[in-house]
Amino acid sequence: MRHKQNLVEFKIIRDRERCIQCEVCARQCAFEAHIFDADAREMESVDALCAGCQRCVSLCPTRALTVIKNPQEFRPDSYWTKNVLQGIYKQADTGGVLLSGMGTDKIYKSYWDRILLDASQVTNPSIDPLREPMELRTYLGAKPEKIELRSVGKTRKPRLAVKLAPQLRLETPIMFSAMSYGAISYNTITALARAAAKSGTFWNTGEGGFPKALYEYAPHTIVQVASGRFGVHSGYLNAASAVEIKIGQGAKPGIGGHLPGEKVSRLISETRMIPEGSDAISPAPHHDIYSIEDLAQLIGALKEATRYEKPISVKIAAVHNAAAIASGIVRAGADIVAIDGFRGGTGAAPTRIRDNVGIPIELALASVDERLRKEGIRHRASIVAGGGIRNSADVVKAIALGADAVYIATSALVAVGCHMCQKCYTGKCNWGIATQNDYLVKRLNPDIASERLSNLLKAWSREIKEMLGGMGIDAIESLRGNRLRLRAVDMTDTEMTILGIKPAGESL
Amino acid sequence: MCGIIGIINLDRRRFSGELIAKGLSHLKDRGNGLGSGYAGYGIYPDNPDDWCFHIFFTSEDARLKTEQRLDAAFKVTKKEPLPVKPMTSVKRPPLIWRYFLKIPAIRPTSTGSAEEREKKYIFALVMEINSSGEGAFVASSGKNMGIFKGVGFPDEMAEFYRLDEYRATAWTAHNRFPTNTPGWWGGAHPFGLAELSLVHNGEISSFGINKRYLESFGYHLALQTDSEAILYLFDFLTRIHRLPLEIAAVALTPPHWEIIDCLPPDEKKLYTALRMIYASCLINGPSALVLGFDSGMMGLNDRIKLRPLVAAESKSFAYISSEESGIVAVAREKLKKIRHPAAGEPVIFKYRPTKNQIKPVTNRDGSKTGGHQS
Amino acid sequence: MNKKIKNRRHKSLKHSGGGRIGKPGESSVKYLIVGAGPAAIAAIEAIRKRDKRGAITIVSSEKEVFYSRPLISYLLADDIGEENLFYRGEDFISANAPLRIIAGAPASSINPRDKTAAIAYGRVLKWEKLIIASGGVPIVPPAILGAKNLRTFTTIEDARRLDADIKSGAKRAVVVGGGFIGLKCAEALVKRGVSVTLVELAMHVLPSLLDDVSAGIFQKNLERHGVSVRTLSSVEKIYDGGKKLKLSGGEVIETDIIISAVGVRPNVSFLEGSLIRMGKGVIVGDDMRSSADGVFAAGDAADVPEFFSGARRAVPIWPVARQTGAIAGENAAGGAARAAGALTMNSIEVFGLAVISAGSVNPSPDSGTAFLDGAAVETADGLADLPDGTPRYKKLVFDGGGRLAGFIMLGDVERAGIYTELIKNRASVAAFKRDLAGDSFGFICVGEENWKKRIMPLEV
Amino acid sequence: MKKIYAKPEYCMACRLCEIACFVKHSKSKKIIKAFREERGEFQARIIVEQSGPVSFALQCRHCEDAGCIEACLTGAMTRNPDGAVVCDENKCVGCWSCIMVCPYGVINHDRRRKKIAAKCDLCPDKNTPACVEACPNEALVYE
């Protein structure tokens, strides 16, 4: 067979002392990197097949396995690095587009890690979260600039004169971002739906449609209308609590999506309303949105279809012109603008695009918030920031920069077992998440996963309350857009200007 | 923690500045001598219809430049230095002048009643002067009212401004312990804008977002202080959005969701809408304030009452102060109801309708007295 | 009646102190049970479920009661002590009071009309309900009947006598009969250092349990452990009191003891003249009622409806004794229970080679069971030996209707119970016939509709 | 009485339950030592049944009408007060009658010390049976 270039990414190390040939690793590895040699009564492994997903390592009952990056190095070269060379080898082998899952893992500056939070000392006291209620409740949707009142009855009691636009009520400003049924397993979306319901927030069906059996979670579901229009029908739109038009995704701005046919099972074909086994391709642009007024038309159509009872969200990838785009989206009638930063994840995207297209969410968010405020239309839509939110500190910083709430997806997947092996597109996810294989989907137990997800949200919410209390704030409203409580380290002046925050050390 | 005190004569009879000075000096140890001040309503009975600007100037040149601007924008009926008494303990006071101004007939470019258009005009001018960077700062800009403040202890300021020579129907006063901003004449309380004056004791942690919200409506916060922001929030809600004071108070210090959720449906919708729409007006952190306006005075605490506030009434007077001792010290009549308002519960005192006026009299601020209060 | 004769307290029933031992003059009792084996025990337990107070009396010919006869081979082989034989002990008697035991007193006659029972030493007992659970007695072929060194091997007493023989120097033994009892006795004797010759009339040992292939493996294992096996042969004549005997093939063998293990017949001689309908044992319906009112029978003493044909015949195995005893007890106490047909099944391990077989394993046209026409037989030969070298053999017998009718599992008896259950349930096994014969047949193969409800949490 | 139930929809046939049961009933109770010294000597008392992607772990169901108790010659197989069917390993002689009638085939023979019938004993010395504890996906529950 033609010699394959040096493409072995991982090395499986088996401690013979500890290995008891119980074959758990062989049974658990969908990539078949472990084999039991019956007559030698020995476990063997094939490094080349290993995806580094650590499934065998974590399930081996005697912890006999270690999987590490293949130490076998290339000739050291700071420019022609190992990744670069392996990319060329693969493409020379296959002539195909390199694919990867998850978000870019390249070394780009993380602004979250360069933003510091304020705290109260002496002059303004902290508020003790154990004594005072800390309020994270958030309403996403269009707000009027001014409240319209009328007086009622003898006592001239003030009452609301005008009905407000529909809102999404979140008990904590964290939602699960779009991951379609098809990219991830039915058990995983069930877990997301349950956790969203339990934590008083929302999950997003993504462009995979909304399986009927999960309609019971509709009060906590946001459904997507993407360029493929998969699974979109009036029942679908009216069941959910909000409809999100997907224009772009942080990991692959500007391009469409492709769910391979073999992953399209009967239930997926039913949910997406496409023939079983056929490739589900969502085209790059919405073929009925070629300019901003077409978006306005689609938003209007969706509002009509849902009798103006559901907020309409528009999700864009964070790209250079995000501020102007966001302004256009708000003026087109969107109630929520979702911005997905370039660190956002994906089931499958060309590696080059995932690693090089899009801008950091922090900068996009800051510029969008500032632009909408300048144009005096910030109240007409809520901003949801997503793509690379890793912990509750990121959430607080995002809200302080101006977001109403955040979308998390990668963090959610990691919470339910994902080990970021970036091989989602193979459909062989050993953790039972990004797969439709009958043997693998069982590995994610929605009872456990939903509990882990609600634990994550509960933990983050408690941490947010602690941080708020530390700043002397007891309601999320006072954090939103309050950039004075942020300071920058290790940033250029331009970056600080874009983020609208002062350098650390500079007082009020 | 600053000292704040407000006294109002419910029958709208004017009383001497000595009383408020005595009250404030009673709260002397609440300040560090870097700022105190007084606001008096009804102190210029001879020019009731003129807008009276008290302006600090850092230099003669700044004064002349600002006066050119005033001459262009107003009909100046009178301009004079504010009568002060030079004192050794009051170091390097700025030039302080007052101007009585009439607004020339304004082409009805903007909507709203004549009075609202006038206020809009004043608002624009004050913002312009304060943000011009010419070294001029409009300390107060109301009708038949004025603010006397600066760097110094309460008694020093009272003496420096010869407060005893003034008689007002309502006074508010503030003794400052500056924390965030450096002691500077303009930075002392009360803060004034048109009919409103505010004395505030507290530190609001939501200043960042309150400021950005106000700035998006054209407000310019020269002094970067919480109090200035709160004053402008009140101006914005009551003047531009024409909200009744009680509703504005809810917008600034809303109840918790767990309380709102238990309200009857209509009220619940209202409060939820208020928190949604005016999220950026919510003031967070410890705060106690007294807001003066043409027809009365209001006291308000933050939404979890992290600062004390006391209100009391006697036969013809009403008092609001951060401490009971201040009220007891100045009360001439027997104090009836002494109470501590709850978190976010506004205490509003308005002048009683005077007996000899049969038909209701329209006050300068458009509100009516004597008739049924609309 | 002779007052002095009192039931001698027998030391072996360590725990028999409780309960009133028969006092003379005690004449009537609600439940009389003849026999003290598994059927009797099951009957007592079933009666007590419905009737906590009705007095029960046990009459047993043996001095030891409530012990497990199959365990006598383990006793003889010194694997266990006598105390391990007792299936129920002291607490069983007090727990089921009022329970009176008349041990060592065989019943002599039964008068169903007067509902009386005469027992040894002339005592007469009146009963309301009678359960005949007297078990079986060994059959002795006439040829060896007169032998002085003749032994049988069904009771604890038999084991004690053989133990005594060995201790007094017996070195050679001939076991007549290659059935369950003969083989277990032979194994015990070999363990005690006695050289054994096994004489079997049929083609091979365990004729009703094994087929020729499995018997071949089984007999090779016996010979490997020093038992010389003579099939298709019987004892023709004995000389000098049994010291020497001539087999049908002409061979003459010298022996110290002869053990008759050719089979067991119901111990019902005391019922002669009682006009109760008898076959080999007391003929009963599936409710264990005999032809006489109030008279029930269970265990080896009864001819019970057989599983496949429903014909009444003796199915002398432990589980059937327990089931029929329980039905008899329940119905005696006013119940209306019905027993499933008795299914022949056996599990035996001799010299480390285990066999389990159930149902009909040698289907032949003349086996007299109509269902077997069109029976298919599948033998899984070529199964790899077990890791420790034990040979494996599996035979399945299917009736004409796609149901499992019998099986033999030799060497590896893993999970045999699933097959037994399939026979009992008359389950159609056509769908997983191939798995049944295979190596990795599992419970899952019986189909989701069967296993699902058994293992899932109750959908509350 | 608490019983062990299986959830086939979450059982991934990894067989960690079998390993845990094996170790729990081994001499050393240490996984590496147990496998090195006693593998093949005895079997776990739980079996993972598998047919394609459908799988579940099966152990004694502690039946109400337990055939094994009826078939047991020695009285070793009894039901203890809390309802669990247990085999008294001192009394058992290894006649395999229980194996002959157990409809689930979850009794196997343990010939280490002496021949005994080995079945699930619900790990009486633990508040959660070893197999339930070992299942990484909560496909075994004890309720």
Q: Which spans of chain B have pLDDT < 50 for at least 5 consecutive residues?
A: 370-374
The whole-number mean of residue pLDDT values of chain B reads 88
Oligomer: heterotetramer
How far apart the termini of chain A lie comes to: 69 Å
Number of helices of chain B: 10
CATH superfamily of the largest domain in chain A: Aldolase class I
Radius of gyration of chain B: 20 Å
Tell me what you see in this structure:
The complex is a heterotetramer of chains A (508), B (374), C (460) and D (143). Chain A has two domains: 10-96, Alpha-Beta Plaits; 173-416 and 451-503, TIM Barrel (Alpha-Beta Barrel). Chain A contains 15 helices and 23 strands. Chain A has helices at 24-28, 55-59, 82-94, 186-199, 234-239, 266-272, 292-305, 322-331, 351-356, 361-374, 392-401, 410-415, 438-441, 446-470, 493-499, and strands at residues 10-14, 34-37, 42-45, 65-69, 99-100, 115-117, 138-140, 149-152, 157-160, 168-170, 174-176, 203-204, 221-225, 242-246, 257-259, 280-282, 312-317, 336-340, 349-350, 382-386, 405-408, 486-488, 502-503. Chain A has an eight-stranded parallel sheet. In chain A, β8 and β9 (157-160) form a beta hairpin. Chain A is globular and about 95 Å long. Chain B is built from ten helices and 20 strands. Chain B has helices at residues 17-26, 60-73, 114-131, 154-160, 207-215, 226-240, 245-252, 257-260, 265-277, 324-330; strands at residues 3-9, 15-16, 36-41, 51-57, 75-81, 95-102, 136-143, 145-150, 167-168, 170-175, 191-193, 196-202, 287-293, 296-301, 310-313, 317-321, 338-339, 347-350, 361-362, 368-369. A seven-stranded antiparallel sheet of chain B has the order 8-3-10-1-16-15-17, with helices on one face. Chain C is of the alpha/beta class and 460 residues long. Chain C has three domains: 28-70 and 80-137 and 266-332, FAD/NAD(P)-binding domain (3-Layer(bba) Sandwich); 140-262, FAD/NAD(P)-binding domain; 352-455, FAD/NAD-linked reductase, C-terminal dimerisation domain (Enolase-like, domain 1, 2-Layer Sandwich), CATH 3.30.390. Chain C is built from ten helices and 25 strands. In chain C, the strands form six sheets. In chain C, strands 1, 2, 3, 4, 5, 6 and 18 form a seven-stranded mixed sheet that branches. In chain C, a hairpin with a 3-residue loop joins β5 and β6. In chain C, α1 runs parallel beside α7 (318-332). Chain D is of the alpha+beta class and 143 residues long. Chain D contains five helices and eight strands; from the N terminus they run βααββαββαββαβ. Chain D has helices at 16-24, 31-38, 67-71, 97-101, 130-134, and strands at residues 4-6, 47-51, 54-58, 77-79, 85-87, 108-110, 116-118, 140-142. In chain D, strands 1-8 form a two-stranded antiparallel sheet. A two-stranded antiparallel sheet of chain D has the order 2-3. Chain D starts with a strand and ends with a strand. The A-D interface holds A 17-18, 20-24, 27-28, 59, 61-62, 432, 438-440, 442-443, 445, 447-448 and D 7, 9-16, 19-20, 31-32, 35-36, 39, 52-53, 134, 136-139.
